Amino acid sequence: MVTFMTFRRTASKCGTESVRSDLMLVAVTAFMAAASGCGSSQNYSPSKSEELVGQSYQAIADNDIPRAIELLEQSIAIEPTAYAHYQVAQLSIRQTPDDDAKSIEHCKAGLAIAVEGATKDDLEWLLAECGKPKTQRFQGANQNPPSSSK
Prior knowledge:
two-stranded antiparallel sheet, mainly alpha, single chain, 2 strands, Serine Threonine Protein Phosphatase 5, Tetratricopeptide repeat
């Protein structure tokens, strides 16, 4: 099962950054289709970890970022994935832009288990952005994660 979600940072007219989820519907739909066994003759039952990731999507949709992070961290405790680490890192920057420690920690943990592909590329991108001064992050060609252009 492949589900994904990216967040795009954009500058508003007053210069503040906002984060928006432009693939939320795709991610939730893909998760629900997989969870319901859509496209398969087998009955698919998501793992507890996958259920928690799915619940985090709803928390994000409800703009309850602390709850989404909590659910993703519970998922990681059960079954660590590079994707869940990436989501926590991304959400942590949104929740506490002045404290990069949690984002950096999750980027590094995700990279330690990531295989080649979009999630690894996104983790490397986010870690590099965390290393920049806050005023220079998410600008120009580095405004969006690499997976957003694929």
